[in-house]
Amino acid sequence: MNNPLNHRSMRILLPITLLALASLACGFVFPPTISAPTPTPVIAQVQPTMVPVTLPAAVVDEQSLLVSLYARVNPSVVNITIYAKQPDNSVVPLGFASGFVYDDQKHIITNAHVVQNADEIEITFSDGTISAATVVGIDYNSDLAVVLVDRMPAGVLPLPLGDMSTLAVGQTVFAVGNPFGELEGTLTKGVISALGRQIPALTQFRIPQSIQTDAAINPGNSGGPLLNMQGEVIGVNAMIETSSQSATNSGIGFAIPVSVLKRAIPDLVAKGKTEWSWLGVTGGDLTPTIAKAMNLNFDRGAYLSQITADGPASQAGLQGSTGTQTVDGRTVEVGGDIITAIDGQPVRSFNDLLVYVALQTRPGQKVTLTIARGGKTMDIVITLGVRPEVVNTNPAQLLPTPNVPPS
């Protein structure tokens, strides 16, 4: 069906009386109706030599590449309209967002926060095809969702997925999406500004390995792809850093990394849900100040400040902070275990621990933690649990869809 919000029509009337003027504007002249005057000699004029403008080869190559990539990618990027049912059973638009084709089975990837409150979903493809869609699976821990469209235009291909190991700060990236719900098919370009960020999910947990970019993304870009210059998806746009006065781009945007996408989406497609490993600890990086307060001869690792009661870490006997101490005017927690390795892999920060547990393990798997406690080093074997489903009702930093406050 046609959606009046997504289409505009314009009629231009051209009166017959303007035909002659239009012809002149196009360089066409009607034959004269009177005799032409006797031609006069034409005096040759010397035209000035114009200096040709030549773009550097690298610029031309990048422009050509982006034009080619956009032509290939854009048909696989979709606009999403979500609708809400009213008490009188009418259906009204709730917001707009973006998504992209995942496979040849008509699955579309977008953000969980886009579709979590939708009663009806409508997908619009770049050729104008509009299709209803249903939710296949939602994962609040990764802020990812999969929807299934009723029909898809012929020739639309899934977007290939990239590899986190190939990414580096400074690489050129581009985003394609539907900013502000009406600027469909918009391409913006930027660079990877930082890697390894942690961004909030729709639960009390955070999304590791997230990508920071200065490519312009705005409300309505939620769920759209962030791509490398090979046209591969390296992230799903989800968040922007904004001031309290504005919800528009300020040069800092975040994308859920392709590593998390590869971990969550296959389960969502196959089972409608995915489970994440859970250690049951809260903490941060071991700092030189904490190391000094605890008389340690090293200052890198994951410091455990709290252990969740009855969680896997608690059952295995891990310990959190026992108090505080002031060192050089700074008060820090002390007494907690410091994790220095997991399954033999060095842990130099709390983020290292988070990434390994989230992306390298499954619930029920046993892992060996190497910890420092009381001046001694020991190995502790832990059986990982399943993350509890506790939903954060106010993820203030999530990139909202237009007309919808963050949910």
* Multimerization status: single chain
- CATH topology-level fold name of the largest domain: Thrombin, subunit H
Overall number of strands:
22
The total domain count is 2
Describe this protein's structure.
The protein is of the alpha+beta class and 407 residues long. It folds into 2 domains: 58-275 and 388-407, Thrombin, subunit H; 277-386, PDZ domain (Pdz3 Domain, Roll), CATH 2.30.42. Helix content is 16%, strand content 34%. It has helices spanning 19-25, 57-73, 112-115, 258-271, 288-293, 312-316, 350-360, and strands at residues 77-85, 91-101, 107-111, 120-124, 130-139, 144-149, 172-177, 186-200, 206-213, 225-227, 233-240, 253-257, 277-278, 281-285, 302-307, 323-327, 330-334, 338-342, 345-346, 366-373, 376-383, 385-386. Strands 1-2-3-6-5-4 form a 6-stranded antiparallel beta barrel. A hairpin with a 2-residue loop joins strand 18 and strand 19. The model is unreliable at 1-38, 40-49 and 391-407 (pLDDT under 50).
The gist of it:
The chain has 407 residues and is α+β, with helices and mostly antiparallel strands.
Key attributes of the depicted protein:
Pdz3 Domain; single chain; elongated; 16% helix; 407 residues; Thrombin, subunit H; 7 helices; 6-stranded antiparallel β-barrel; 22 strands; alpha+beta; disordered N terminus
Helix/strand layout:
Elements: H1 19-25, H2 57-73, E1 77-85, E2 91-101, E3 107-111, H3 112-115, E4 120-124, E5 130-139, E6 144-149, E7 172-177, E8 186-200, E9 206-213, E10 225-227, E11 233-240, E12 253-257, H4 258-271, E13 277-278, E14 281-285, H5 288-293, E15 302-307, H6 312-316, E16 323-327, E17 330-334, E18 338-342, E19 345-346, H7 350-360, E20 366-373, E21 376-383, E22 385-386
Antiparallel strand pairs: 1-2, 1-4, 2-3, 3-6, 4-5, 5-6, 7-8, 7-10, 8-9, 9-12, 10-11, 11-12, 13-22, 14-15, 15-18, 16-17, 18-19, 18-20, 20-21
